[in-house]
């Protein structure tokens, strides 16, 4: 295990760990995985900088992803109303994220300083503060979501400062630009001597798209390139956070103009989803596609990384009992999904980002968080106990037949999503 960047002895965190130990006294391994993840994330990935902002590394990569960092601290939000230190940490992260958005809204991962680390040879508009510049819609969704959830779970509104407001305006501007990717976008990305999943076709422009009302994404939350430019789960997430921004603009800033801009864009993207993202499957009926291009092509799959089709109710995109979602859920949790693997040790969703037949713990946690079936949730908890490879931690992916074969022994997002699943199982939930 790596050396901590900043240790904590926070009482609220210790109390939560002790509460979960008590609740799972009869299943101590689950309690141990929870304790390891809940403590490891704050001790090894979270750093308060001199300007009181928060920098969060993803784990075994010394850079901060906008998506991962928000997801890593999300379970701590249940403590933010009781503990000022936790609230300050999350607020510091929101501030740091929004400063990065203003630095470059197309980038997905950043360095702690302008040290030139990361993928500086990529053919795109790189800079020394940027680790990677793969444009992903969800990279802009997550900071908006985190600021909103901090408000709803602690009552704080001080995170909604000028930085947050200017970054919000940049996000709306970029998403409007990328509604017209072919005609208006300044963005391109190429990585030489790399797998095709790491670079965009057409000299960095990506596969051809037509206008749909949705907004374009170069890459998926896995950091793999999109096959088709309209990534449906991320567009659905964008609708949710634009409605958050509408509420923030009205309630906190009393800015009717910005509120209307956010709502108008949300409605346009939503209409695009209704018109272009739903397909009729011969076995499952109406389901959401994973990607489309507005030219009649669809990619029917799901990926373990969030936003995913599986995660739609978790993100607030649909109700848990939404008919199209339930049809889609049956599809993605079946072998009709090319990345659903059935093995001797486990069955679950993986990703083209990792080797064939590798199941992701993130997907198992998300399956539990979105399940309405208590039996299914119990089986998933058993799977976690059986697939940690004796490490007391979750991983990125593990082989469906042999959990001792796994990727990324230190992957904080995965650990914290499991913690959230276990808390949710106990009725400890983040207010949305």
Automatic annotation (TrEMBL):
It comes from Paenibacillus turicensis. This is Meiotically up-regulated gene 157 (Mug157) protein. Pfam families: Glyco_hydro_125 (PF06824).
């Amino acid at each position: 295990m790596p050396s901590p960047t900043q240790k904590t002895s926070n009482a609220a965190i210790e109390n939560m760990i002790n509460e979960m130990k008590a609740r799972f006294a009869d299943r101590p391994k689950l309690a141990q995985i929870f304790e390891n993840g809940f403590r490891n994330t704050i001790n090894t990935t979270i750093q308060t900088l001199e300007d009181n902002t928060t920098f969060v590394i993803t784990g075994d990569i010394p850079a901060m992803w906008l998506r991962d960092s928000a997801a890593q601290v999300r379970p701590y939000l249940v403590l933010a109303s009781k503990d000022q230190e936790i609230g300050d940490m999350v607020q510091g992260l929101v501030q740091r994220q929004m400063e990065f958005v203003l630095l470059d809204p197309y980038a997905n991962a950043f360095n702690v300083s302008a040290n030139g680390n990361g993928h500086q040879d990529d053919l795109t508009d790189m800079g020394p503060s940027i680790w990677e510049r793969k444009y992903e819609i969800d990279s802009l969704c997550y900071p908006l979501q985190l600021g909103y959830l901090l408000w709803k779970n602690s009552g704080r509104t001080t995170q909604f400062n000028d930085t947050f407001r200017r970054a919000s305006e940049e996000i709306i501007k970029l998403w409007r630009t990328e509604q017209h990717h072919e005609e208006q976008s300044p963005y391109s990305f190429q990585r030489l001597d790399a797998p095709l999943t790491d670079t965009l076709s057409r000299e960095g422009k990506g596969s051809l798209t037509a206008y749909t009302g949705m907004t374009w994404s170069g890459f998926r939350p896995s950091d793999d390139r999109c096959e088709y430019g309209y990534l449906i789960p991320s567009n659905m997430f964008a609708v949710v956070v634009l409605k958050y921004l509408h509420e923030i603009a009205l309630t906190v800033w009393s800015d009717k103009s910005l509120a209307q801009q956010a709502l108008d864009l949300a409605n346009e993207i939503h209409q695009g989803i209704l018109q272009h993202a739903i397909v009729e499957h011969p076995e499952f009926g109406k389901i959401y596609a994973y990607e489309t291009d507005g030219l009649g092509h669809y990619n029917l799959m799901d990926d373990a990384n969030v936003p995913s089709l599986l995660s739609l109710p978790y993100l607030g995109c649909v109700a848990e009992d939404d008919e199209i979602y339930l049809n889609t859920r049956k599809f993605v949790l079946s072998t009709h999904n090319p990345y659903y693997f059935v093995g001797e040790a486990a069955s679950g969703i993986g990703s083209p980002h990792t080797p064939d037949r590798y199941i992701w713990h993130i997907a198992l946690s998300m399956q539990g968080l979105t399940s309405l079936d208590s039996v299914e949730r119990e089986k998933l908890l058993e799977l976690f106990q059986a697939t940690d490879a004796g490490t007391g931690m979750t991983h990125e992916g593990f082989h469906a037949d042999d959990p001792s074969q796994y990727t990324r022994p230190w992957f904080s997002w995965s650990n914290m999503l499991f913690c959230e699943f276990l808390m949710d199982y106990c009725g400890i939930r983040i207010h949305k």
